[in-house]
UniProtKB/TrEMBL annotation:
Residues 99-273 form the D-isomer specific 2-hydroxyacid dehydrogenase NAD-binding domain. GO terms for molecular function: NAD binding; oxidoreductase activity, acting on the CH-OH group of donors, NAD or NADP as acceptor. Coiled coil: none annotated. This is Phosphoglycerate dehydrogenase. The keyword NAD applies. InterPro entries: D-isomer_2_OHA_DH_cat_dom, D-isomer_DH_NAD-bd, NAD(P)-bd_dom_sf. It comes from the Bacteria.
Amino acid sequence: MQPLTSQQQETILAAAPGYTLTLGNAKSPDLDQLARAEIIIGWGKGIADTVLQPGSPLRWVQTWSAGVEKLPLGKLEERGILLTNASGVHAEPITAVIIGFMLMFTRNLHTAIRNQLERKWHSDGKESELTGKTAVIAGTGSIGSETARIAKAFRMKTIGISRSGSEVDGFDKVYTTAQLQEAAGSADFLINTLPLTDETKGLFNADVFNACPQGAYYINIGRGATTDTEALMTALNSGQLSGAGLDVFDPEPLPSEHPLWGMEQVIITPHCAGTTDRYADRIVELFTGNVQAYLKDGQPSRNLVDYSRQY
């Protein structure tokens, strides 16, 4: 979590007249301060018992992340606490990582980097391009939609997957989650941007990978536990999948002895796809808009988490 600058703090206070803003450390939270909080930005281990005890003034939690699976959702819902996430804040940097993965694979840049380390002048002549390829993007929210928009600049075909299957700008077609295998059958790139919920845990399994055309690529910037890692490695080792770009894992950090590290057709980033020097600015912009709605209407207007969906 990036510390808030003095300007960012002033922006928050200007949007919330009459409130005080106290900065804390998520790794060593001040429980006495938190016990008096009506609104909390972020979350920390070990604070739930304090902020959710009977009589607590807490009314609203704004997370610093898009995912909320680590929060005690049942207890928050039971207490009637409003919960908003940071969805949308990550769209630009994560889209850049997704497009980066695709470009690295099509142009064999990942192998070029390894060859450079060995001072080896070599190309196997199998470089390709994104033009005409199909990106199947699971999740048509802010990240998926921005990825589809940029993919169109490369003249790619874009297929979306969502719970509803509703049409979304930037996608040539949208399937429902139940049609994931059918959609995967068209994928040159199968891209996972989904949150971790009861419905998505292990969703990307052997059946899904085997439904892809042989030689497809898998990209996951959502949550590690949405993927059956053993099935993914089997598909990579057999050649069913040509490669994978992975930012998220189960568990994290990825253990140093894990076989994924040694697979040359895999590109690994350490759950940093959403990291950007503009992150705090975007969080503050989201939060101040929500504060104004909260003070006017009693609840924030953007990114309100639906407890029944877990996102």
